């Protein structure tokens, strides 16, 4: 079951959902409009699943930054979101998609108990200027069925996320030795 906008607002008010910073004007009928943070990691060249990703970090200036095709950008949400009660689904939206920005296609699920600023996978079809704090997608909350199991209490590889993360798949391949 997906929460309605008013249900999200009520759950933020009671503390069942964390959205920080929270702006009630960003509530839509079934989601919260999240924003792009102010930092990107640029991953160029060949990527190897068995090795840590090499990147450069770039602050997005207030005048914006032009993203170009052929690079993988890892970004971060402006908001920190989470809930011990609800799971989250984070996606881009039509406003960014119409600019040829593909955001967070591969990992939209936020588990119960994972309160984070999300790492975003971003690719673009054409050069496009983005700005820190711009609306970048929608975050929906869904009710979980069954006994809750908080992500933060598991030995999950991203449980300690605190910022932009590169893939940690290399730790699973050949025991992480490469």
Tell me the Rg in angstroms: 17 Å
User: Approximately how much beta-strand content do the residues carry?
Assistant: 35-45%
Major sheet: 6 strands, antiparallel
Helix count from the secondary structure assignment = 2
- Percent range for helical residues? under 10%
Categorize the overall geometry.
globular
What would you call the structural class? mainly beta
Low-confidence residue ranges: none
Report the strand count. Answer: 13
Order of helices and strands: HEEEEEEEEHEEEEE
Distance between the termini: 43 Å
| Average pLDDT score | 88
Summary tags:
178 residues, 37% strand, 2 helices, six-stranded antiparallel β-sheet, five-stranded antiparallel β-sheet, mainly beta
Folded structure, characterized:
The protein is mostly beta strands and 178 residues long. It is 8% helix and 37% strand. The protein has helices at residues 5-14, 94-97; strands at 18-20, 27-28, 31-35, 39-43, 56-59, 65-67, 72-82, 86-91, 101-103, 109-110, 116-124, 128-130, 135-143. The strands form three sheets. Strands 1, 4, 5, 7, 9 and 11 form a six-stranded antiparallel sheet that branches. The longest helix has 10 residues, at 5-14. The model has no long low-confidence stretch (mean pLDDT 88).
List the helices and strands and how they pair.
Elements: H1 5-14, E1 18-20, E2 27-28, E3 31-35, E4 39-43, E5 56-59, E6 65-67, E7 72-82, E8 86-91, H2 94-97, E9 101-103, E10 109-110, E11 116-124, E12 128-130, E13 135-143
Antiparallel strand pairs: 1-7, 2-3, 3-13, 4-5, 4-7, 6-12, 7-11, 8-10, 8-13, 9-11
């Amino acid at each position: 079951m997906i929460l309605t906008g008013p249900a999200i607002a009520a759950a933020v008010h009671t503390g069942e959902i964390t959205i920080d910073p929270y702006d009630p004007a960003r509530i839509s009928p079934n989601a919260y409009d999240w924003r792009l943070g102010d930092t990107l990691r640029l991953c160029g060249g060949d990527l190897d699943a068995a090795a840590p990703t090499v990147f450069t970090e770039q602050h997005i200036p207030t005048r914006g930054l032009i993203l170009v095709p052929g690079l993988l950008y890892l970004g971060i949400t402006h908001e920190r979101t989470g809930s011990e009660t609800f799971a989250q689904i984070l996606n881009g939206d039509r406003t960014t998609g119409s600019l040829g920005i593909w955001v967070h296609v591969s990992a939209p699920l936020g588990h119960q108990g994972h309160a984070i600023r999300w790492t975003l996978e971003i690719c673009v079809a054409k050069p496009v200027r983005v700005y820190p704090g711009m609306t970048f997608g929608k975050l929906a909350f869904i009710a979980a069925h069954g006994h809750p199991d908080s992500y933060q209490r598991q030995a999950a590889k991203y449980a300690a996320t605190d910022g932009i993360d590169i893939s940690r798949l290399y730790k699973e391949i050949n025991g992480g030795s490469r």
